[in-house]
């Protein structure tokens, strides 16, 4: 499987393609929440852990917001819009220091969580393509 991390210039906004909705059908909402939970738990042991809430209850709420969004982007119920409003994710990430190396850590943790789902290769690749491209939208510090 070819899960590379794309390189982009600062401020680039490459076109994002939504992930294959069959990934949600394959894993179910609970499976998506479990994958997001694993991603967050991996980040909590990573060099970007300080970006996330240190308090357990707040950390769990952060998982919930993220999994609500992932279920929605995969064509499921609009949990995120209902609970948080319009995603406007680049704007919501602005208060946080998101660097190129931070993106790499975020994606590397996702790669592990994704592979552990044991979903079919084409579904993993489609979700990876989505986060690989969209994650550059969140980078808000130009230093490489
Ligand atoms: C570039 C790598 C990324 C980093 C370092 C990062 C980091 C963060 C941080 C620090 C938060 C706030 C934690 C909290 O909710 O308390 C957050 C929230 C969130 N992130 Fe990211 N993120 C990245 C990329 C992405 C991508 C690509 C997506 C979507 C595909 C995404 C979706 C979300 C969502 C939905 C939230 C919750 C926003 C809210 O409602 O408050 N993030 N992220």
Your description of this structure?
By secondary structure, the protein is mainly α. The chain has one domain (22-138): Globins (Globin-like, Orthogonal Bundle), CATH 1.10.490.10. It has helices spanning 22-44, 56-73, 79-84, 89-93, 100-115, 121-134. 25% of the residues are buried. It binds protoporphyrin IX containing FE. The site of protoporphyrin IX containing FE has 22 residues, from helix 2, helix 4, helix 5 and helix 6.
Strand and helix layout:
Elements: H1 22-44, H2 56-73, H3 79-84, H4 89-93, H5 100-115, H6 121-134
Bound molecules: protoporphyrin IX containing FE.
Nutshell version of this structure?
By secondary structure, the chain is an all-alpha fold. It has 6 helices and no strands.
Total beta strand runs: 0
Low-confidence stretches: none
The CATH architecture assignment turns out to be: Orthogonal Bundle
Q: Bin the strand percentage.
A: under 5%
CA radius of gyration is 14 Å
| Terminal-residue CA separation | 26 Å
Query: How many domains in all?
Result: 1
CATH class: Mainly Alpha
CATH topology: Globin-like
Structural class of the helix and strand makeup? mainly alpha
Percent in helix = 55-70%
Please supply descriptive tags for the structure shown above.
144 residues; mainly alpha; Globin-like; 6 helices; 0% strand; globular; binds protoporphyrin IX containing FE
């Amino acid at each position: 499987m070819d899960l590379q991390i794309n390189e982009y210039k600062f401020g680039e906004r490459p076109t994002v393609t939504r992930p294959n909705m069959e990934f949600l059908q394959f894993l179910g909402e609970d499976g998506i929440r479990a994958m997001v939970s694993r991603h967050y738990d991996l980040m909590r042991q990573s060099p970007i852990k300080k970006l996330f809430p240190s308090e357990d209850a707040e950390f769990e709420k952060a998982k919930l917001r993220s999994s609500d969004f992932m279920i929605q982007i995969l064509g499921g119920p609009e949990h995120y819009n209902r609970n948080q409003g319009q995603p406007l994710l680049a704007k919501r990430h602005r208060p946080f220091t998101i660097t190129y190396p931070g993106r790499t850590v975020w994606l590397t943790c996702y790669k592990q969580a994704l592979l552990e789902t044991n979903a079919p290769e084409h579904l993993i690749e489609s979700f990876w393509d989505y986060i690989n491209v969209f994650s550059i939208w969140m980078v808000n510090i130009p230093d490489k």
